[in-house]
Amino acid sequence: MHFKKILVPIDFSHFSKKALEVAVQLAECCGGKIHLLHVEEDIFHIQEIHKIHPPLEKICDEMHKQFVGAKKRSLEQFKSYIPRNLFAGAVVKEGHAFVEIIKFAKNQCADVIVMASHGRSGLRHAFLGSTTDKVSRKAGCAVLIIKDKECKFLPL
């Protein structure tokens, strides 16, 4: 299997930086291109507040605009870890993370999604689930899950 289109969801944690490092190695090996995606649920909720309380519409719109801008600037920092010849694009989406990741992968015809596992367990995992778990179960392409350990992608 050739991994030409590689999607890396970014949540700005050191876990997603680790996944990006592996994605870069994979892209170098396979001649692939990397798409970065950040999905923000908080801005989605900010945008909806004014529907409940209409006088807040202008304030919510301004907060939303600033929040999206800040997330785009943060995503630019992650872009700097990718060699130019391997970079395909960076996008900030709003909504539920696993849904938007799966939709983006399908729309871009991604060959693989490289994402990190935060390693949560216990009650928090049981009640909230894991974005990584949901993506791995529902994605229409391969999903490479990177644990928070030292790892290198070695070509065959």
Q: Kindly report how far apart the N and C termini lie.
A: 13 Å
Corresponding CATH superfamily of the domain at 5-40 and 79-146: HUPs
The fraction of residues assigned to DSSP E strands is: 15-25%
Write out the strand line-up for the largest beta sheet, numbering strands in chain order. 3-2-1-4-5
Largest sheet: 5 strands, parallel
Q: Give the overall shape.
A: globular
Fraction of residues in helices?
40-55%
The number of distinct β-strands equals 5
Low-confidence stretches: 123-128
* Whole-angstrom Rg: 17 Å
Please provide the ordered H/E string of secondary-structure elements: EHEHHEHEHHE
In terms of structural class, how would the helical and strand content be classed?
alpha/beta
Give the CATH class of the domain at 5-40 and 79-146. Answer: Alpha Beta
> Would you tell me the overall average pLDDT?
84
CATH topology of the domain at 5-40 and 79-146: Rossmann fold
Helical segment count: 6
What is the annotated CATH architecture of the domain at 5-40 and 79-146? 3-Layer(aba) Sandwich
How is this structure best described in words?
Helix 4 runs parallel beside helix 6. Helix content is about 50%, strand content about 20%. It has a five-stranded parallel β-sheet with strand order 3-2-1-4-5, sandwiched between helices. Strand 1, helix 1 and strand 2 form a beta-alpha-beta unit. The protein has helices spanning about 15-30, 40-50, 55-80, 95-105, 120-130, 130-140, and strands at about 5-10, 35-40, 85-95, 110-115, 140-145. The protein is globular and about 55 Å long. The protein has about 160 residues and is of the alpha/beta class.
